[in-house]
Amino acid sequence: MAEKILITGATGNIGKETIKNLLSNENDEIEVIAAVRDIDKAKNIFDFNRLRFTKFDFKNSRLIKEALQNKDKILLIRPPAISKVKKYILPLIKEAKRKDIKHIVFLSLQGVENNPLVPHYKIEKLIKNEKIPYTFLRPSFFMQNLSTTHKKEIKEDDEIYIPAGQGQTNFIDIRDIAEVASLVLTEENHKNKAYELTGKESLSYYKVANILSEELNRKIEYKNPSIFNFFTKKKKEGLSLTKILVMIGLYTAARLGKANKTTSEIQNLLGKEPITFTEFTKDYKENWL
Ligand SMILES: NC(=O)c1ccc[n+]([C@@H]2O[C@H](COP(=O)([O-])OP(=O)(O)OC[C@H]3O[C@@H](n4cnc5c(N)ncnc54)[C@H](OP(=O)(O)O)[C@@H]3O)[C@@H](O)[C@H]2O)c1
Fold it and tell me: In degrees to the nearest 10, what's the CA dihedral of 84, 87, 88, 93?
């Protein structure tokens, strides 16, 4: 019987790419179910006859129970807006235990093992406590943050407005993460492991701006604002206080050189070089035109 894989965060960066990966080759040993808040909206995003949908919300225990019914594996993606782990993520983990789910693949975070303050740390611990077979994917910073969160400032103002100083950041393409997610969801030998996934190179935002300028054929400037100026600008743009503080935390870590670690896990797992920032820029070029 086909294994049933439930994908949370299915309409987001990693969920969407993982679904594409899982369904792009005719593997009838798996059935993929997208767990989504709005089925009609999600149906417009995907073009796979074989993809099934189930209504799901981390904040609704009835939907959690229904979505996990008769499933074998789960890709767990914590939505960035959910930070109350006990309230909104633990019910799914408990239900997974009750339903004897065979494997949870959790999208975690690079460096999580040394950072008890982030929700991912608590989630990893809860999954381990329940003794559910797991794989933790701990990626570095997504390249696609530049084509989503920072898209507007690059496209409209020709600038990168990030307070990361001269610090270098390791960037990874979400397509590499999704390929790993598909692999570990369909192979048996990744249970109870954690993979620190990174791109091959760490770059300062000056270098990022240079690559973008070259590919886009116009000058993109790295502004390197002070934290005070960054805070003021983001507040004026209407971002929530929590989101601004999370961004300041991330970019301060980068400024202090704590976001530049590189590993060879992509090569080890996928047998290929990670996608480079230049390749990402070429592939996503139209986002900033
Ligand atoms: N960005 C980075 O550089 C980076 C690096 C390492 C780790 N991470 C981690 O990656 C995770 C985010 O993954 P992502 O970027 O793939 O996601 P994303 O693009 O931010 O999408 C979030 C997803 O969560 C869904 N969602 C939101 N609220 C929900 C709710 N109450 N119930 C059910 N689904 C809900 C959204 O669905 P709708 O369509 O319904 O809104 C969407 O599919 C975060 O935990 C983040 O910390 C990010």
Answer: 120
**Ligand 1 center–CA 105 separation, angstroms:** 14
Residues with beta carbon inside 6 Å of ligand 1? 9-15, 36-38, 56-59, 77-81, 107, 109, 139, 141-142, 145
pLDDT digits (tens, 9 = 90+) for 143-186: 999 999 999 999 999 999 999 999 999 999 999 999 999 999 99
Is the separation of the CB atoms in 96 and 67 below 8 Å?
Answer: no
Q: 68, 95 in Cβ contact below 8 A? A: yes
Q: How confident is the model at residue 26 (pLDDT cuts 50, 70, 90)?
A: confident
Dump pLDDT digits (tens) for 79-121: 999 999 999 999 999 999 999 999 999 999 999 999 999 999 9
The type of residue at 135 is T
Q: Which residues pair with 4 in a beta bridge?
A: 31
Token pair 């390791």 is found at 170
* Whether residue 281 sits in one domain with residue 154: yes
DSSP element (H, E) containing 61? helix 61-68
pLDDT per residue over 186-207, tens digit each? 999 999 999 999 999 999 999 9
Domain residues for the domain of 81 are 3-139
Q: Is the same domain home to 46 and 108?
A: yes
Mean predicted confidence (pLDDT) in 52-63: 98
Nearby residues of 158 by Cβ (< 8 Å), 6 or more positions away = 218, 219, 220, 221
Query: 91 and 130: one domain?
Result: yes
CATH number at residue 114: 3.40.50.720
Calpha distance 43→58 (Å, rounded): 20
Say how many domains are in the chain.
Answer: 2
User: What is the C-alpha to C-alpha distance for residues 108 and 248, in angstroms, rounded to an integer?
Assistant: 19
